[in-house]
Each structure stands twice: as structure tokens, then as C-alpha cells.
Design goal:
- Keywords: Hydrolase, Membrane, Transmembrane, Transmembrane helix.
- Residues 20-34 have a biased composition (Acidic residues).
- The active site is at residues 170, 280.
- Residues 1-10 have a biased composition (Pro residues).
- By secondary structure, the chain is of the alpha+beta class.
- It has one domain (69-312): Sortase, Chain: A (Beta Barrel), CATH 2.40.260.10.
- Helices cover 22% and strands 19% of the residues.
- It is built from 5 helices and 9 strands.
- Strands 1-2-3-4-8-9-6-5 form an 8-stranded mixed beta barrel.
- β2 (134-139), α3 and β3 (151-152) form a beta-alpha-beta unit.
- The longest helix has 52 residues, at 46-97.
- It starts with 21 loop residues before the first helix and ends in a 13-residue tail after the last strand.
Length: 314
């Protein structure tokens, strides 16, 4: 029997190759002519615009305040440092070129200084604040004067005189000489130098120390020699004169010859030789004044190479 013929396989169908029209590819564009409504952003409401405007205004105000603080605290410090340096250089030049008049032999008398508004006439040191704390003191207390450094209240006593040698200074910015004035404690020294003399003042007992000062071990320390509540040594007229106090700006009586006793007549030989330092309080505010009272305890003639031993108390 002849063999059966094999079935013929169907021809394999070739998948036709798709020819990409690369030349036309870049021309193909796909647009959705009608975007979905949900993709559209809602228009800004009036409330949103208001909030955005307020936010931008607050940011702008914050930047302005920040720049002002930087200027007041840092830039004015640099400007004042330059002015203080110039004032000190002028004072040194004057002291080195002038003929020095010796101090009076009578300790109850004081040579009058020739004070010129805006010019430095003395140097001040607070040893407890460090060796680098030193400022030239100018005559006058206007803003222009205090940009140079601590300023002497005109018509108050001069260094070493009976009465109240009174000095004002900034606490923040413009050199901030009295930034740490609140850190002074009773018996801390404040040294003032003129062309011919050194004067050592020491902070009086604080109000909290007055009542028990005699029994206070601190009163026996060498640094407190000559320091005592003035009410016990000079009478009730000085009962309000303590080492530190806070007052309102209108209380100018703190720089009276006898603090808080305006119009009180007391002979000069019965008056204490005081130093009063004033500055704004608290920091970054001028609502109050911080006052420090000190009393002269020693004086020395200026001599080449001599530095008062109190200068080493820092």
C-alpha cells in the first residue's frame, strides 16, 4: 500500500515590520483640547490675598527691625569706638604737651579742670570689668556727646570735688560703656584719672546691706575700707544714697550734690565726695534709669610709671 502523503505545513506568516516615519515624528502633537475641570486651580479668594499681603508685610517689617537692631547694637559700636579712640588720642596729646600743674597741697581743695563741651578731660577704669575696660570721659551728656563715650553731667562736681561727680553712659550700642553696670557690687572700685591725679571711688553698700553693714564680714575686707552707709557717717540727708537704685527718667535728683535732696543746703566740707553713674534700664529700654553711687576713698598724684594698686582688683 503506498504511503500516505504528509500534510503540507501552512506557510509561516511573517509579522509585517512597522515602518516608523521618523521624519514625521516631531510633527506629531498630542493635545487635550478640553482639560479636565478638576485640574484647573481655583481663583484666589479675597481672604487668601489678604493673608498673603499681611504675611509679606510682616516679613518686610521683620527684616527692617532686624537691620535696625544690627545697626544699633553693632554698627554704632564700631562708629563710637572710632570716636572714643580719637577723643583719647586728643586727650593724651593734650596731657603730654601741656605743662602739668601740681595738685593742691590742701586735700580739701581741688584744682578746677578746664572743661570744654564735647572734649575728653578724664579717663575712667572699672578694674572688676577687666583690664580692657577704660573710657575717656567727655564733657556733656547729649546724644552726640554720648556717642563718643561716657559723658559728664554739666554743673555737677568735678573729679575729687565735694558733691556729686555724675557720669552718664549708654548700655546698649554706641560703645555701651555701662552695659554691665548692674553687675557692680558694694566696694568695687571705679578709678578716675585726670592729668594730675588718680581718684579711687568705691560703690556704696546696697540697700539690702545697709541695716546690717557693721556686722557684715564684707565690711572688714580691705577693699571696703572707707565704705559704709552714708546715713551712719553723714546723717539722714544721705539716707537714700545707696550703692544701686532704679528710678524713672524724671528723677534728676539722683545727681544732686546730695542725692535725692534737691535744694538742701549743706556746707561743702560736710558733703561726701561722690561719684554717680547713670544708664538706661532695663537693657534695650529707656523706661527707667539704673543708678550706681560710689564714694571717694583714696587719691594719688599722677607720677611716671605709677598705677594705683586698685587697678589690679579685676
Amino acid at each position: 500500500m503506498p504511503p500516505r502523503p504528509r500534510p503540507v505545513d501552512p506557510p509561516t506568516e511573517v509579522i509585517p515590520r512597522v515602518e516608523d516615519d521618523y521624519d514625521d515624528y516631531d510633527d506629531d502633537e498630542y493635545y487635550d483640547d478640553e482639560p479636565a475641570a478638576k485640574d484647573a486651580l481655583p481663583p484666589d479668594s479675597m481672604a487668601r490675598k489678604t493673608v498673603r499681603g499681611v504675611g509679606e508685610a510682616l516679613i518686610t517689617m521683620g527684616l527692617v527691625v532686624l537691620l535696625f537692631v544690627v545697626y544699633e547694637v553693632y554698627v554704632t559700636d564700631l562708629l563710637s569706638a572710632e570716636k572714643q579712640q580719637d577723643a583719647t588720642a586728643a586727650l593724651d596729646s593734650e596731657w603730654n604737651s601741656d605743662v602739668v600743674t601740681p595738685p593742691p597741697a590742701d586735700p580739701n581743695r581741688q584744682s578746677k579742670l578746664n572743661l570744654i563741651e564735647g572734649k575728653a578731660f578724664a579717663k575712667m577704669y572699672i578694674p572688676v570689668f577687666g583690664n580692657d575696660w577704660k573710657f575717656s570721659v567727655v564733657e556733656g551728656t547729649t546724644d552726640k556727646h554720648l556717642e563718643i563715650g561716657p559723658g559728664h553731667y554739666k554743673d555737677t562736681a568735678q573729679p575729687g570735688e565735694a558733691g556729686n561727680f555724675s557720669i552718664a553712659g549708654h548700655r546698649v550700642g554706641k560703645g555701651a560703656p555701662f552695659n554691665d553696670l548692674d553687675l557692680l557690687e558694694s566696694c568695687n572700685a571705679v578709678v578716675v584719672q585726670t592729668q594730675t591725679q588718680w581718684f579711687v571711688y568705691r560703690v556704696l553698700p546696697m540697700s539690702s546691706e545697709v541695716a546690717g553693714w557693721a556686722a557684715n564680714p564684707k565690711a572688714k575686707q580691705a577693699a571696703c575700707t572707707g565704705v559704709a552707709p552714708l546715713s551712719t557717717t553723714l546723717g539722714d540727708a544721705y539716707s537714700k544714697t545707696v550703692g544701686q537704685e532704679i528710678v524713672v527718667p524724671t528723677q534728676g535728683e539722683v545727681i544732686a550734690p546730695i542725692p535725692h535732696q534737691v535744694g538742701t543746703t549743706v556746707p561743702a566740707d560736710k558733703q561726701a565726695r561722690l561719684l554717680t553713674l547713670t544708664t538706661c534700664h532695663p537693657r534695650f529700654s529707656d523706661k527707667q534709669r539704673l543708678i550706681v553711687h560710689a564714694i571717694e576713698t583714696k587719691s594719688y598724684p599722677v607720677a611716671d610709671g605709677f598705677v594705683p594698686p586698685e587697678m589690679t582688683e579685676g
